[in-house]
Amino acid sequence: GNSVTQMEGPVTLSEEAFLTINCTYTATGYPSLFWYVQYPGEGLQLLLKATKADDKGSNKGFEATYRKETTSFHLEKGSVQVSDSAVYFCALSNDYKLSFGAGTTVTVRA
Amino acid sequence: DAGVTQSPTHLIKTRGQQVTLRCSPKSGHDTVSWYQQALGQGPQFIFQYYEEEERQRGNFPDRFSGHQFPNYSSELNVNALLLGDSALYLCASSFTGSAETQYFGPGTRLLVL
């Protein structure tokens, strides 16, 4: 079956620090991979995606590379801001349904 | 361009009651998926509707049912509510041609007492 494992949080950082959130997956076939972000009291927003091996998704300074050999899709940002405080979800798509990780709560302090 | 909209935003029910949640997809989208997100967890797939039929279903009991209308909007119905049904219910829409990329609404928070 499909499953996603994320680095457990919570993660607390200072502004301008480097952020990494680890994500590994198990899937049949060749899934697409996603990162979604959820701000307090809101739904999920698509942050970035990659549809095949070695693809790099990027948006708003965040990046993640689809690594088939290590079945990973780690999220990185070089310099975080207070506004990046949110819950981040790694997800994979197989047969059009999304399977999510448990989420990682990130808090950025000024 | 309106995104995915859901109603109501919040709902309180008691055990044994029935509830209906509604979703309007993003303009141009024809596929609607429903997810349940319990507190502190990732969303879990309930089912997906396309061309007014249930195309896929996750591991949820038959108490959870749905419908899609000709205008692509959708309803999620839950019968015989249990305390454990308390959660954020998220609707996501996509276009068949790119069904993998799903856009989410703000959700309906259901509390069962």
Question: Biggest β-sheet of chain A, characterized?
Answer: 6 strands, mixed
Question: Terminal Cα separation of chain B, in Å?
Answer: 37 Å
Show the largest interface.
Answer: A-B, 23 and 27 residues
Oligomer: heterodimer
What's the gist of this structure?
The complex is a heterodimer of chains A (110) and B (113). With 110 residues, chain A is mainly beta.
Explained architecture:
The complex is a heterodimer of chains A (110) and B (113). Chain A has 110 residues and is mainly β. Helices cover 0% and strands 54% of the residues of chain A. In chain A, a hairpin with a 5-residue loop joins strand 5 and strand 6. Chain B is built from no helices and 11 strands. Chain B has strands at residues 5-7, 10-13, 19-24, 31-37, 44-50, 53-57, 64-68, 74-78, 87-94, 103-104, 108-112. The termini of chain B are far apart. The model of chain B has no long low-confidence stretch (mean pLDDT 94). At the A-B interface, strand 5, strand 6, strand 10 and strand 11 of A face strand 4, strand 5, strand 9 and strand 10 of B.
List the defining traits of the structure above:
heterodimer; A: 110 residues; mainly beta; four-stranded antiparallel beta sheet; 12 strands; 54% strand; globular; B: 113 residues; seven-stranded mixed beta sheet
Blueprint of the fold:
The complex is a heterodimer of chains A (110) and B (113).
Chain A: E1 3-6, E2 11-14, E3 19-21, E4 23-26, E5 32-38, E6 44-50, E7 56-59, E8 62-65, E9 75-77, E10 86-94, E11 97-100, E12 104-109
Parallel strand pairs in A: 2-12
Antiparallel strand pairs in A: 1-4, 3-9, 5-6, 5-10, 7-8, 8-9, 10-11, 10-12
Chain B: E1 5-7, E2 10-13, E3 19-24, E4 31-37, E5 44-50, E6 53-57, E7 64-68, E8 74-78, E9 87-94, E10 103-104, E11 108-112
Parallel strand pairs in B: 2-11
Antiparallel strand pairs in B: 1-3, 3-8, 4-5, 4-9, 5-6, 7-8, 9-10, 9-11
